[in-house]
Amino acid sequence: MNDKQKKTLSRIIMGAVFYIIAIIISKISFPYSNWVSFVVFIVAYIIAGKDVLLKAFSNIKRGKVFDENFLMTIATLGAVIIGEYPEAVGVMLFYMVGEFLQSLAVNKSRKSISDMMDIRPDYANLIKEDKSVETVDPYDVEIGDKIQIKAGEIIPLDGIVVCGRAMLDTSALTGESVPRSVNIGDHVYSGSINKDGLLSIEVTKEFSESTASKILDLVENAAAKKSKTENFISKFAGVYTPIVVFAALALAIIPPFIFPDTGFITWIYRALTFLVVSCPCAFVIAIPLSFFSGVGASSKIGVLIKGGNYLELLSNVKTFVFDKTGTLTAGVFEVVNIRPNRISEAKLIEVAALAEEYSSHPIAVSIKKAYKELQEDSNDSNLSERLSDLTEIAGQGISIKVDKETVLIGNDKLMTSNNIDFEKCDDFGTIVYVAKNNVFLGTIVINDRIKESARESLASLKNIGIQKNIMLTGDTKEVADIVAREVGLDYVYSELLPQDKVDKLEEILAEKNTIAYVGDGINDAPVLARADIGIAMGGIGSDAAIEAADVVIMDDNLDNIVRGIKVAKRTMNIAKQNIVFAIGVKAIFLLLAAIGFGTMWEAVFADVGVTVLCVINAMRNLRTENI
């Protein structure tokens, strides 16, 4: 409970004490007892209703007349004027209790997200040139600087470990509770917590570009992106409130002329009761809270959803389209076969590794890794002088000059387009063809491992209502078909260039189903942006993933897509339940108030009671144990 809530609770207790005293005095007969009870009632009314009254008058000055504060003010002041003091104070007091309970619920919902805000570091331990350590603001640390992280500290900036080893808690980033071991050469990300050991890391990103900063920015702005349901409720409340105000005014003025025996006071009381019932609190608080808690729940399991609009879209997805590498497969490539032509295996790997020196693609990394294993003592410091004229050829490979000789490395299309006489390789895996000066040097076969959970996750998607699972890949048809059979895909489209993926997605979108595209967020940015909802896998440390996608899965776990959809569907169900319940109860009590069977006390339940019940229902959304 924060300080503001403690003050509110104190005012509730104080208002309740004055309210009880006023009721007791009103039951005792002594000189001026009526006046004394009136004064005590007014004191209780001011204590309980001060915030509502001030907000109502402030909003009127700004031209925002029709809101719940205006309705409560008119209703309770009207009750005071006609002498219904206990009802006036009771309405304000119980309204205040309801608002207090709502604030507790909202804070609990916020906590699931604000816990993530703990990943924002307050300082960094900068290692100076004389090896001394100075505590500085993370914003003052530059790329290339070295910082020290002690046990229990948050890693303030992204970097590479240059000294030490430790276990890191990455749960705030990935939702994964199992600590991760890091050693020299490993990448570490800001927001991780050093559980033990002493680390020195070389900073690779400025603080504003760090993983923690990007995640915090994403989460902090999520509430601004409202779903269609939230926008509808906002518009509905804007139209609904003035309608009920004029309806209440008509209820107070017209019936006395039609039923003169009942009198104005009776109908004014009914109109005031009508106003209390009509307050739209349940709509304007409980419905957005349903979506807010959904975003909070998903963040707890490592699924970052950028707003309620994407949460609503995710609940309606019928077709999933997957990238292959890094999504359905682990993205961990290994050289499994080397087929040289007129040269040695070592020489073929050397040429290929030199050609791929500037590439960070997983296939290039696997080739360079294989080269290092064969040439452990190789440490060429003059690579920049040996390499020149690098050209990337979309969908085929690269051309680069190594020692002033032109090397081509890529797929069979690259060989064909350059009229190179080569031997086709039919091995399973990704086939890399290498040529130098238009002479074929051989092939390198690389395999990628299918994720263990892929088949089960895709089956789970079908179980929760997904109609089609499709894969788009630039890999060969043979490899794509094998992966499709292994994981149980419905359709697969292979050998696609980047623009082909977009064209194929356009064809799928023409089916009018809500489409989600799942990729790594780096090579698939155009497709991620074009899909109804883009989902980036393995977002930790990937700027492109966080920027391009609507949903970021902060680890490589495909199961979290299923869990995210379950949260989204539950959010929509809870929001719909709250809407139906709030409208239904209010409709009944509005009718009862209009025909004289409703009292102010029943009106309090129809307003505050319904809101609290809707808020409690919305809070169910924060539970993630069974998701």
From TrEMBL:
Key words, A-Z: ATP-binding, Cadmium, Cell membrane, Hydrolase, Membrane, Metal-binding, Nucleotide-binding, Translocase, Transmembrane, Transmembrane helix
Domain of life assignment: Bacteria
Keyword Nucleotide-binding: yes
InterPro entries xref list: ATPase_P-typ_cyto_dom_N, ATPase_P-typ_P_site, ATPase_P-typ_TM_dom_sf, ATPase_P-typ_transduc_dom_A_sf, ATPase_P-type_domA, Cation_Transport_ATPase_IB, HAD-like_sf, HAD_sf
One Pfam family linked to the record: E1-E2_ATPase
Reaction(s) the record says it catalyses: Cd(2+)(in) + ATP + H2O = Cd(2+)(out) + ADP + phosphate + H(+)
Entry's localization field: Cell membrane; Membrane
Main localization of the protein described in the UniProt heading: membrane
Record membrane topology: Multi-pass membrane protein
Listed GO MF terms: ATP binding; ATP hydrolysis activity; metal ion binding; P-type cadmium transporter activity
GO cellular component: plasma membrane
Entry EC number(s): 7.2.2.21
PROSITE patterns with a match to the protein in the record: ATPASE_E1_E2 (PS00154)
Keyword Membrane among record annotations: yes
Transmembrane segment boundaries: 12-29, 35-53, 236-259, 271-292, 579-597
Residue span(s) of domain P-type ATPase A: 120-220
Family: Belongs to the cation transport ATPase (P-type) (TC 3.A.3) family. Type IB subfamily.
Protein name: Cd(2+)-exporting ATPase
Organism field: Lachnoanaerobaculum saburreum DSM 3986
Encoding gene, per UniProt annotation: cadA
